[in-house]
Design brief:
This protein has 505 residues and is an alpha/beta fold. It is built from 20 helices and 15 strands. The protein binds nicotinamide-adenine-dinucleotide. Residues 9-15, 33-35, 38, 89-92, 96, 100, 117-119, 141-143 line the site of nicotinamide-adenine-dinucleotide. InterPro entries: 3-OHacyl-CoA_DH_NAD-bd, 3HC_DH_C, 6-PGluconate_DH-like_C_sf, 6PGD_dom2, NAD(P)-bd_dom_sf.
Length: 505
Protein backbone atom coordinates (compact mmCIF):
# COMPACT_ATOMS: atom_id res chain seq x y z
CA UNK A 1 0.00 0.00 0.00
CA UNK A 2 1.23 3.53 -0.73
CA UNK A 3 0.35 5.55 2.32
CA UNK A 4 -1.43 8.79 1.37
CA UNK A 5 -3.36 9.74 4.49
CA UNK A 6 -2.14 9.81 8.06
CA UNK A 7 -3.65 10.54 11.46
CA UNK A 8 -1.43 11.76 14.27
CA UNK A 9 -2.48 11.12 17.82
CA UNK A 10 -0.63 13.35 20.29
CA UNK A 11 0.33 16.73 18.86
CA UNK A 12 3.30 17.49 21.10
CA UNK A 13 6.92 17.98 20.07
CA UNK A 14 7.25 14.68 18.21
CA UNK A 15 3.74 14.48 16.82
CA UNK A 16 3.96 17.90 15.16
CA UNK A 17 7.44 17.16 13.82
CA UNK A 18 6.14 14.02 12.14
CA UNK A 19 3.06 15.91 10.94
CA UNK A 20 5.30 18.55 9.35
CA UNK A 21 7.42 16.18 7.28
CA UNK A 22 4.36 14.13 6.27
CA UNK A 23 2.46 17.18 5.02
CA UNK A 24 5.57 18.46 3.23
CA UNK A 25 5.76 15.08 1.49
CA UNK A 26 2.18 15.53 0.24
CA UNK A 27 0.25 13.44 2.77
CA UNK A 28 -3.09 14.47 4.16
CA UNK A 29 -2.60 14.74 7.94
CA UNK A 30 -5.34 14.58 10.57
CA UNK A 31 -4.44 15.75 14.07
CA UNK A 32 -5.91 14.60 17.36
CA UNK A 33 -4.88 15.31 20.94
CA UNK A 34 -6.70 14.37 24.15
CA UNK A 35 -5.98 17.79 25.65
CA UNK A 36 -8.41 20.46 24.51
CA UNK A 37 -6.70 23.07 22.34
CA UNK A 38 -3.42 21.11 22.08
CA UNK A 39 -3.85 20.27 18.38
CA UNK A 40 -4.76 23.90 17.59
CA UNK A 41 -1.70 25.12 19.52
CA UNK A 42 0.55 22.57 17.82
CA UNK A 43 -0.69 23.53 14.38
CA UNK A 44 -0.38 27.28 15.09
CA UNK A 45 3.25 26.76 16.13
CA UNK A 46 3.94 24.66 13.05
CA UNK A 47 2.29 27.27 10.83
CA UNK A 48 4.67 29.91 12.21
CA UNK A 49 7.65 27.59 11.53
CA UNK A 50 6.52 26.90 7.97
CA UNK A 51 5.96 30.62 7.34
CA UNK A 52 9.52 31.31 8.49
CA UNK A 53 10.83 28.64 6.13
CA UNK A 54 8.82 30.16 3.30
CA UNK A 55 10.15 33.65 4.10
CA UNK A 56 13.68 32.21 3.88
CA UNK A 57 12.85 30.97 0.38
CA UNK A 58 12.64 27.23 1.17
CA UNK A 59 9.38 27.06 -0.82
CA UNK A 60 6.88 29.36 -2.51
CA UNK A 61 3.77 30.85 -0.88
CA UNK A 62 1.68 28.59 -3.08
CA UNK A 63 3.48 25.52 -1.68
CA UNK A 64 3.07 26.87 1.86
CA UNK A 65 -0.68 27.15 1.36
CA UNK A 66 -0.81 23.64 -0.12
CA UNK A 67 1.03 22.22 2.89
CA UNK A 68 -1.23 24.02 5.36
CA UNK A 69 -4.35 22.85 3.49
CA UNK A 70 -3.33 19.23 4.11
CA UNK A 71 -3.94 19.49 7.87
CA UNK A 72 -7.26 18.79 9.54
CA UNK A 73 -7.85 19.02 13.29
CA UNK A 74 -10.19 16.34 14.59
CA UNK A 75 -12.79 16.97 17.27
CA UNK A 76 -13.10 13.32 18.16
CA UNK A 77 -10.86 10.31 17.75
CA UNK A 78 -13.59 8.53 15.74
CA UNK A 79 -12.74 10.85 12.83
CA UNK A 80 -9.50 8.94 12.18
CA UNK A 81 -11.62 6.37 10.30
CA UNK A 82 -10.53 6.01 6.68
CA UNK A 83 -6.81 6.91 6.99
CA UNK A 84 -4.05 4.63 5.68
CA UNK A 85 -1.84 5.10 8.73
CA UNK A 86 -2.23 6.19 12.34
CA UNK A 87 0.94 7.35 14.12
CA UNK A 88 0.79 7.62 17.89
CA UNK A 89 3.04 10.12 19.72
CA UNK A 90 1.33 10.37 23.12
CA UNK A 91 2.71 9.96 26.63
CA UNK A 92 5.29 7.16 27.12
CA UNK A 93 3.11 4.78 29.15
CA UNK A 94 2.41 1.17 28.19
CA UNK A 95 -1.14 0.91 29.59
CA UNK A 96 -2.25 4.18 28.00
CA UNK A 97 -0.72 3.30 24.63
CA UNK A 98 -2.23 -0.21 24.72
CA UNK A 99 -5.73 1.08 25.39
CA UNK A 100 -5.39 3.81 22.73
CA UNK A 101 -4.50 1.20 20.07
CA UNK A 102 -7.33 -1.07 21.21
CA UNK A 103 -9.71 1.85 20.75
CA UNK A 104 -8.17 2.75 17.37
CA UNK A 105 -8.61 -0.79 16.12
CA UNK A 106 -12.35 -0.51 16.69
CA UNK A 107 -12.46 2.67 14.57
CA UNK A 108 -10.16 2.10 11.57
CA UNK A 109 -10.43 -0.38 8.72
CA UNK A 110 -8.55 -3.72 8.84
CA UNK A 111 -6.02 -2.39 6.29
CA UNK A 112 -4.99 0.66 8.33
CA UNK A 113 -1.41 0.51 9.62
CA UNK A 114 -0.94 1.41 13.28
CA UNK A 115 2.42 2.84 14.33
CA UNK A 116 3.92 3.99 17.61
CA UNK A 117 6.69 6.52 18.11
CA UNK A 118 7.66 4.95 21.44
CA UNK A 119 11.34 5.30 22.29
CA UNK A 120 11.58 2.80 25.13
CA UNK A 121 8.55 0.50 25.26
CA UNK A 122 8.24 -2.85 23.52
CA UNK A 123 6.29 -2.55 20.26
CA UNK A 124 5.26 -6.19 20.70
CA UNK A 125 3.81 -5.40 24.13
CA UNK A 126 1.95 -2.32 22.86
CA UNK A 127 0.40 -4.47 20.09
CA UNK A 128 -0.33 -7.45 22.31
CA UNK A 129 -4.04 -6.71 22.95
CA UNK A 130 -4.90 -6.09 19.31
CA UNK A 131 -7.15 -8.37 17.33
CA UNK A 132 -4.77 -8.17 14.37
CA UNK A 133 -1.24 -7.53 15.64
CA UNK A 134 0.42 -7.80 12.24
CA UNK A 135 -0.67 -4.27 11.31
CA UNK A 136 1.29 -2.62 14.10
CA UNK A 137 4.93 -1.45 13.99
CA UNK A 138 7.23 1.05 15.64
CA UNK A 139 7.97 4.25 13.70
CA UNK A 140 10.59 5.89 15.89
CA UNK A 141 11.69 9.41 14.96
CA UNK A 142 14.25 11.65 16.65
CA UNK A 143 13.95 15.18 17.92
CA UNK A 144 13.82 17.58 16.06
CA UNK A 145 12.09 15.41 13.48
CA UNK A 146 12.58 17.58 10.36
CA UNK A 147 16.35 17.84 10.99
CA UNK A 148 17.08 14.32 12.25
CA UNK A 149 16.71 12.50 8.96
CA UNK A 150 16.45 9.03 10.39
CA UNK A 151 13.57 6.82 11.51
CA UNK A 152 13.68 3.33 12.96
CA UNK A 153 10.99 1.05 11.58
CA UNK A 154 10.53 -1.52 14.32
CA UNK A 155 9.15 -4.94 13.59
CA UNK A 156 7.47 -6.45 16.64
CA UNK A 157 7.17 -10.22 16.91
CA UNK A 158 3.90 -10.22 14.95
CA UNK A 159 4.48 -7.32 12.52
CA UNK A 160 3.74 -8.11 8.85
CA UNK A 161 6.65 -7.67 6.44
CA UNK A 162 4.40 -5.59 4.17
CA UNK A 163 3.76 -3.12 7.00
CA UNK A 164 7.52 -2.70 7.50
CA UNK A 165 8.01 -2.25 3.75
CA UNK A 166 5.23 0.36 3.53
CA UNK A 167 6.70 2.38 6.40
CA UNK A 168 10.20 2.21 4.94
CA UNK A 169 8.84 3.49 1.64
CA UNK A 170 6.98 6.31 3.40
CA UNK A 171 10.13 7.27 5.33
CA UNK A 172 11.94 7.69 2.04
CA UNK A 173 9.16 9.85 0.59
CA UNK A 174 9.39 12.06 3.70
CA UNK A 175 13.13 12.50 3.08
CA UNK A 176 14.23 10.28 5.97
CA UNK A 177 16.39 7.18 6.04
CA UNK A 178 14.24 4.34 7.31
CA UNK A 179 16.12 1.51 9.01
CA UNK A 180 14.54 -1.83 9.78
CA UNK A 181 15.02 -2.69 13.42
CA UNK A 182 14.17 -5.61 15.68
CA UNK A 183 11.98 -4.91 18.69
CA UNK A 184 14.72 -4.85 21.35
CA UNK A 185 15.39 -2.43 24.24
CA UNK A 186 16.49 0.95 22.88
CA UNK A 187 16.19 -0.36 19.28
CA UNK A 188 19.35 0.83 17.44
CA UNK A 189 20.21 4.43 18.23
CA UNK A 190 19.28 4.66 21.92
CA UNK A 191 20.90 1.26 22.46
CA UNK A 192 24.16 2.16 20.68
CA UNK A 193 24.20 5.53 22.41
CA UNK A 194 24.66 3.84 25.83
CA UNK A 195 28.41 3.35 25.44
CA UNK A 196 29.40 7.01 25.24
CA UNK A 197 27.83 8.22 28.48
CA UNK A 198 28.25 5.14 30.66
CA UNK A 199 31.99 4.74 29.98
CA UNK A 200 32.52 8.48 30.54
CA UNK A 201 30.72 8.15 33.89
CA UNK A 202 32.89 5.16 34.80
CA UNK A 203 36.02 7.18 33.99
CA UNK A 204 34.75 10.08 36.11
CA UNK A 205 33.87 7.69 38.95
CA UNK A 206 37.44 6.37 38.93
CA UNK A 207 38.80 9.90 39.43
CA UNK A 208 40.82 9.88 36.21
CA UNK A 209 40.29 13.59 35.56
CA UNK A 210 37.68 16.36 35.75
CA UNK A 211 34.35 16.61 33.94
CA UNK A 212 35.72 19.49 31.84
CA UNK A 213 38.86 17.57 30.85
CA UNK A 214 36.92 14.42 29.85
CA UNK A 215 34.60 16.55 27.71
CA UNK A 216 37.57 18.39 26.19
CA UNK A 217 39.43 15.18 25.29
CA UNK A 218 36.38 13.56 23.68
CA UNK A 219 35.41 16.72 21.80
CA UNK A 220 38.78 17.96 20.66
CA UNK A 221 40.69 14.69 20.49
CA UNK A 222 38.15 12.02 19.58
CA UNK A 223 35.87 14.25 17.47
CA UNK A 224 32.50 13.97 19.23
CA UNK A 225 30.34 17.04 18.67
CA UNK A 226 29.64 17.42 22.41
CA UNK A 227 31.37 16.06 25.47
CA UNK A 228 29.39 13.35 27.32
CA UNK A 229 28.75 15.58 30.35
CA UNK A 230 27.66 18.53 28.23
CA UNK A 231 25.29 16.10 26.54
CA UNK A 232 23.96 14.73 29.85
CA UNK A 233 23.31 18.30 30.99
CA UNK A 234 21.47 19.09 27.76
CA UNK A 235 19.33 15.94 27.75
CA UNK A 236 18.75 16.20 31.53
CA UNK A 237 19.28 13.32 33.94
CA UNK A 238 15.57 12.92 34.71
CA UNK A 239 15.34 11.68 31.10
CA UNK A 240 18.69 9.92 30.62
CA UNK A 241 19.30 8.21 33.96
CA UNK A 242 16.00 6.24 33.82
CA UNK A 243 16.86 5.23 30.23
CA UNK A 244 20.28 3.94 31.38
CA UNK A 245 18.64 1.94 34.17
CA UNK A 246 15.87 0.67 31.92
CA UNK A 247 18.19 -0.64 29.18
CA UNK A 248 20.50 -2.22 31.80
CA UNK A 249 17.57 -4.00 33.46
CA UNK A 250 15.81 -4.96 30.24
CA UNK A 251 19.03 -6.77 29.26
CA UNK A 252 19.07 -8.50 32.66
CA UNK A 253 21.95 -6.53 34.21
CA UNK A 254 24.26 -6.83 31.22
CA UNK A 255 27.57 -5.26 32.35
CA UNK A 256 28.03 -3.38 29.10
CA UNK A 257 25.13 -1.07 29.98
CA UNK A 258 25.85 -0.67 33.70
CA UNK A 259 24.70 2.81 34.79
CA UNK A 260 26.47 4.92 37.38
CA UNK A 261 25.71 5.70 41.01
CA UNK A 262 26.90 9.24 40.25
CA UNK A 263 23.90 10.12 38.10
CA UNK A 264 21.41 8.41 40.45
CA UNK A 265 22.73 10.64 43.24
CA UNK A 266 22.56 13.78 41.09
CA UNK A 267 19.02 12.88 40.11
CA UNK A 268 18.11 12.43 43.79
CA UNK A 269 19.61 15.87 44.46
CA UNK A 270 17.65 17.36 41.51
CA UNK A 271 20.88 18.46 39.79
CA UNK A 272 19.60 17.20 36.48
CA UNK A 273 21.21 19.59 34.01
CA UNK A 274 21.00 22.84 32.13
CA UNK A 275 17.23 23.27 32.51
CA UNK A 276 17.58 23.63 36.32
CA UNK A 277 20.83 25.62 36.14
CA UNK A 278 23.01 22.79 37.46
CA UNK A 279 24.09 19.33 36.41
CA UNK A 280 27.69 18.37 35.77
CA UNK A 281 28.29 22.09 35.15
CA UNK A 282 26.62 25.18 36.62
CA UNK A 283 24.78 27.49 34.21
CA UNK A 284 23.74 31.11 34.14
CA UNK A 285 21.55 32.18 31.21
CA UNK A 286 22.22 28.81 29.59
CA UNK A 287 26.01 29.35 29.66
CA UNK A 288 28.46 27.19 31.60
CA UNK A 289 30.09 29.22 34.35
CA UNK A 290 32.45 26.72 35.99
CA UNK A 291 34.20 24.94 33.16
CA UNK A 292 37.77 24.19 34.25
CA UNK A 293 40.14 25.88 31.80
CA UNK A 294 42.71 23.94 29.80
CA UNK A 295 45.69 22.80 31.85
CA UNK A 296 48.54 25.29 31.95
CA UNK A 297 51.69 24.26 30.11
CA UNK A 298 54.66 24.18 32.51
CA UNK A 299 57.58 26.43 31.65
CA UNK A 300 60.33 23.95 30.81
CA UNK A 301 63.53 25.23 29.17
CA UNK A 302 65.77 22.18 29.25
CA UNK A 303 64.75 18.72 28.19
CA UNK A 304 66.43 15.41 28.94
CA UNK A 305 66.92 12.89 26.16
CA UNK A 306 63.76 10.96 25.28
CA UNK A 307 63.55 7.18 25.10
CA UNK A 308 60.53 5.76 23.24
CA UNK A 309 58.81 2.37 23.25
CA UNK A 310 55.52 1.64 21.53
CA UNK A 311 53.22 -1.26 20.71
CA UNK A 312 53.28 -0.37 17.02
CA UNK A 313 56.27 0.54 14.83
CA UNK A 314 54.40 3.41 13.12
CA UNK A 315 53.75 5.03 16.51
CA UNK A 316 57.49 4.98 17.27
CA UNK A 317 58.25 6.61 13.90
CA UNK A 318 55.67 9.33 14.46
CA UNK A 319 56.92 10.15 17.96
CA UNK A 320 60.58 10.08 16.93
CA UNK A 321 59.95 12.46 14.01
CA UNK A 322 58.00 14.86 16.23
CA UNK A 323 60.62 14.87 19.00
CA UNK A 324 63.44 15.43 16.50
CA UNK A 325 61.50 18.35 14.97
CA UNK A 326 61.40 19.96 18.41
CA UNK A 327 65.20 19.80 18.52
CA UNK A 328 65.24 17.30 21.38
CA UNK A 329 67.69 14.41 21.44
CA UNK A 330 66.44 10.85 21.22
CA UNK A 331 67.89 8.11 23.34
CA UNK A 332 68.34 5.17 20.91
CA UNK A 333 69.90 2.77 23.38
CA UNK A 334 68.36 -0.63 24.11
CA UNK A 335 67.56 0.48 27.66
CA UNK A 336 66.94 4.08 28.71
CA UNK A 337 69.87 6.19 29.95
CA UNK A 338 69.74 7.04 33.63
CA UNK A 339 67.91 10.36 33.27
CA UNK A 340 66.04 9.93 29.97
CA UNK A 341 62.35 10.77 29.87
CA UNK A 342 60.57 7.51 28.98
CA UNK A 343 57.62 7.89 26.59
CA UNK A 344 55.38 4.88 25.93
CA UNK A 345 52.55 4.70 23.39
CA UNK A 346 50.26 1.92 24.52
CA UNK A 347 46.71 0.74 24.19
CA UNK A 348 44.23 -0.36 26.86
CA UNK A 349 46.75 -0.17 29.65
CA UNK A 350 47.70 2.07 32.55
CA UNK A 351 51.23 3.43 32.73
CA UNK A 352 52.24 1.29 35.70
CA UNK A 353 51.33 -1.89 33.79
CA UNK A 354 53.01 -0.61 30.62
CA UNK A 355 56.23 0.39 32.44
CA UNK A 356 56.43 -3.05 34.03
CA UNK A 357 55.75 -4.75 30.68
CA UNK A 358 58.53 -2.79 28.96
CA UNK A 359 60.80 -3.23 32.00
CA UNK A 360 61.45 0.50 32.48
CA UNK A 361 61.63 2.86 35.46
CA UNK A 362 58.06 3.99 36.22
CA UNK A 363 59.27 7.16 37.99
CA UNK A 364 60.43 8.59 34.63
CA UNK A 365 57.60 7.19 32.47
CA UNK A 366 54.72 8.99 30.77
CA UNK A 367 52.35 7.29 28.28
CA UNK A 368 50.76 9.02 25.32
CA UNK A 369 47.51 8.18 23.52
CA UNK A 370 47.99 7.71 19.77
CA UNK A 371 44.62 6.14 18.97
CA UNK A 372 43.18 9.39 17.68
CA UNK A 373 44.82 11.95 15.39
CA UNK A 374 48.16 13.10 16.85
CA UNK A 375 47.63 16.47 15.15
CA UNK A 376 44.62 17.10 17.42
CA UNK A 377 44.35 17.17 21.22
CA UNK A 378 46.95 15.01 23.01
CA UNK A 379 46.50 13.03 26.22
CA UNK A 380 49.34 12.04 28.54
CA UNK A 381 49.22 9.59 31.45
CA UNK A 382 52.03 9.48 34.01
CA UNK A 383 52.22 6.53 36.42
CA UNK A 384 51.37 6.97 40.11
CA UNK A 385 55.10 7.38 40.82
CA UNK A 386 56.27 9.49 37.87
CA UNK A 387 58.29 12.46 39.16
CA UNK A 388 56.85 15.93 38.52
CA UNK A 389 59.93 17.05 36.63
CA UNK A 390 59.34 14.29 34.04
CA UNK A 391 55.58 14.96 33.81
CA UNK A 392 56.32 18.65 33.17
CA UNK A 393 58.87 17.82 30.48
CA UNK A 394 56.45 15.52 28.68
CA UNK A 395 53.65 18.08 28.97
CA UNK A 396 55.79 20.91 27.59
CA UNK A 397 57.23 18.69 24.85
CA UNK A 398 53.83 17.63 23.48
CA UNK A 399 52.29 21.09 23.92
CA UNK A 400 54.88 22.72 21.66
CA UNK A 401 53.43 24.79 18.77
CA UNK A 402 50.39 25.64 20.91
CA UNK A 403 49.03 22.11 21.03
CA UNK A 404 46.22 21.18 23.47
CA UNK A 405 47.43 18.63 26.03
CA UNK A 406 45.59 16.92 28.90
CA UNK A 407 47.52 15.16 31.63
CA UNK A 408 45.30 12.58 33.30
CA UNK A 409 45.69 10.28 36.31
CA UNK A 410 46.33 6.58 35.79
CA UNK A 411 43.45 4.85 34.07
CA UNK A 412 42.94 1.33 32.70
CA UNK A 413 43.18 2.96 29.28
CA UNK A 414 43.24 6.46 27.85
CA UNK A 415 39.89 8.27 27.86
CA UNK A 416 39.44 8.24 24.07
CA UNK A 417 40.56 4.62 23.93
CA UNK A 418 38.06 3.53 26.58
CA UNK A 419 35.12 5.43 25.14
CA UNK A 420 35.76 4.75 21.46
CA UNK A 421 36.45 1.05 21.96
CA UNK A 422 33.17 0.76 23.90
CA UNK A 423 31.25 2.65 21.20
CA UNK A 424 32.63 0.40 18.46
CA UNK A 425 32.24 -2.80 20.51
CA UNK A 426 28.63 -2.10 21.41
CA UNK A 427 27.71 -1.32 17.78
CA UNK A 428 29.41 -4.57 16.71
CA UNK A 429 27.43 -6.44 19.34
CA UNK A 430 24.19 -4.91 18.06
CA UNK A 431 25.16 -6.23 14.62
CA UNK A 432 25.95 -9.64 16.16
CA UNK A 433 22.48 -9.73 17.72
CA UNK A 434 21.05 -9.00 14.24
CA UNK A 435 19.00 -6.13 15.61
CA UNK A 436 19.68 -4.47 12.24
CA UNK A 437 22.22 -4.82 9.43
CA UNK A 438 25.72 -3.52 10.13
CA UNK A 439 25.33 -0.86 7.48
CA UNK A 440 21.95 0.29 8.86
CA UNK A 441 23.38 0.44 12.40
CA UNK A 442 26.27 2.50 11.09
CA UNK A 443 24.11 5.00 9.21
CA UNK A 444 21.38 5.21 11.85
CA UNK A 445 23.78 6.00 14.68
CA UNK A 446 25.77 8.50 12.62
CA UNK A 447 22.56 10.37 11.75
CA UNK A 448 20.82 9.87 15.10
CA UNK A 449 23.73 10.80 17.35
CA UNK A 450 25.73 13.08 15.06
CA UNK A 451 28.96 11.06 15.31
CA UNK A 452 31.66 11.90 12.74
CA UNK A 453 31.52 8.28 11.49
CA UNK A 454 29.11 5.43 11.95
CA UNK A 455 30.18 3.48 15.06
CA UNK A 456 31.19 0.42 13.03
CA UNK A 457 33.09 2.29 10.30
CA UNK A 458 34.73 4.30 13.08
CA UNK A 459 36.28 1.02 14.22
CA UNK A 460 37.68 0.53 10.71
CA UNK A 461 39.06 4.08 10.67
CA UNK A 462 40.81 3.57 14.04
CA UNK A 463 41.82 -0.01 13.24
CA UNK A 464 39.82 -3.00 14.44
CA UNK A 465 43.04 -4.64 15.72
CA UNK A 466 43.74 -1.70 18.03
CA UNK A 467 40.13 -1.64 19.29
CA UNK A 468 40.37 -5.36 20.02
CA UNK A 469 43.71 -4.94 21.79
CA UNK A 470 42.32 -2.15 23.99
CA UNK A 471 39.30 -4.24 24.99
CA UNK A 472 41.30 -7.42 25.62
CA UNK A 473 43.79 -5.62 27.85
CA UNK A 474 41.12 -3.74 29.80
CA UNK A 475 39.25 -7.00 30.33
CA UNK A 476 42.44 -8.75 31.47
CA UNK A 477 43.40 -5.88 33.75
CA UNK A 478 40.01 -5.48 35.44
CA UNK A 479 38.10 -8.73 34.92
CA UNK A 480 35.12 -6.49 34.22
CA UNK A 481 32.86 -8.21 31.67
CA UNK A 482 31.70 -4.86 30.29
CA UNK A 483 34.98 -4.82 28.32
CA UNK A 484 34.66 -8.27 26.72
CA UNK A 485 35.04 -7.92 22.97
CA UNK A 486 32.05 -8.83 20.84
CA UNK A 487 32.53 -11.99 18.74
CA UNK A 488 31.59 -9.86 15.71
CA UNK A 489 34.58 -7.60 16.37
CA UNK A 490 36.96 -10.42 17.28
CA UNK A 491 36.42 -12.44 14.10
CA UNK A 492 36.70 -9.49 11.74
CA UNK A 493 39.73 -8.00 13.51
CA UNK A 494 41.58 -11.34 13.49
CA UNK A 495 40.80 -11.97 9.81
CA UNK A 496 41.75 -8.34 9.02
CA UNK A 497 38.32 -7.68 7.49
CA UNK A 498 36.24 -4.54 7.58
CA UNK A 499 33.97 -4.47 10.63
CA UNK A 500 31.11 -3.92 8.18
CA UNK A 501 31.81 -7.31 6.59
CA UNK A 502 28.63 -9.41 6.50
CA UNK A 503 28.31 -13.09 5.81
CA UNK A 504 27.83 -13.75 2.08
CA UNK A 505 25.86 -16.99 2.37
N1 LIG B 1 10.81 14.05 22.87
C1 LIG B 1 11.69 13.24 22.29
O1 LIG B 1 12.88 13.55 22.14
C2 LIG B 1 11.22 11.91 21.77
C3 LIG B 1 12.00 11.24 20.81
C4 LIG B 1 11.55 10.04 20.28
C5 LIG B 1 10.37 9.50 20.72
N2 LIG B 1 9.64 10.14 21.69
C6 LIG B 1 8.37 9.52 22.10
O2 LIG B 1 7.30 10.21 21.44
C7 LIG B 1 6.14 10.21 22.27
C8 LIG B 1 5.68 11.64 22.49
O3 LIG B 1 6.72 12.39 23.05
P1 LIG B 1 6.74 13.99 23.01
O4 LIG B 1 8.08 14.41 23.48
O5 LIG B 1 6.23 14.50 21.70
O6 LIG B 1 5.66 14.31 24.15
P2 LIG B 1 4.83 15.66 24.39
O7 LIG B 1 4.54 15.70 25.84
O8 LIG B 1 5.47 16.84 23.73
O9 LIG B 1 3.45 15.38 23.61
C9 LIG B 1 2.56 14.38 23.94
C10 LIG B 1 1.16 14.83 23.51
O10 LIG B 1 0.27 13.72 23.64
C11 LIG B 1 -0.94 14.16 24.22
N3 LIG B 1 -1.55 13.00 24.85
C12 LIG B 1 -1.19 12.40 26.02
N4 LIG B 1 -1.98 11.33 26.24
C13 LIG B 1 -2.85 11.26 25.21
C14 LIG B 1 -3.89 10.34 24.86
N5 LIG B 1 -4.20 9.31 25.63
N6 LIG B 1 -4.54 10.54 23.69
C15 LIG B 1 -4.23 11.58 22.90
N7 LIG B 1 -3.25 12.48 23.18
C16 LIG B 1 -2.58 12.32 24.31
C17 LIG B 1 -0.54 15.26 25.16
O11 LIG B 1 -1.63 16.14 25.41
C18 LIG B 1 0.59 15.95 24.38
O12 LIG B 1 0.09 16.97 23.54
C19 LIG B 1 6.54 9.44 23.52
O13 LIG B 1 6.18 8.10 23.36
C20 LIG B 1 8.05 9.59 23.57
O14 LIG B 1 8.68 8.55 24.28
C21 LIG B 1 10.03 11.34 22.19
Amino acid sequence: MTIQTMALIGTGVMGMGIAQIAAQAGLEVRLFDAKTGAAEAGLAKLKATLEKLQAKGKFTEEVLNEILARFKILDSIEEVAGVDLVVEAIIENLDIKQSLFKQLESIVSPETILATNTSSLSVTAIASNLEYQGRMAGFHFFNPVPLMKIVEVIAGLATDEQVVADLLELAQRMGHLGVRTKDTPGFIVNHAGRAYGTEALKILGEGVTSVSEIDRILREGAGFRMGPFELFDLTALDVSHPVMESIFNQYYQEDRYRPSALTRQMLAGKKVGRKVGEGFYKYVDGQKINEVSAQEVPDVRTFNTVWIRTDRAEDADLLAAYIREQGITLDHAETPAQDSLIVLATYGEDTTTAALRFGVDATRTVSIDLLTDFAKHRTLMPSIVTEKNYIDQAHALFAKNGHGVSVIAESIGFISQRVLSMVVNLACDIAQQQIATASDIDQAVKLGLGYPYGPISWGDVLGADRILLILERMLANTGDQRYRPSPWLQRRARLKLSLLHTVAV
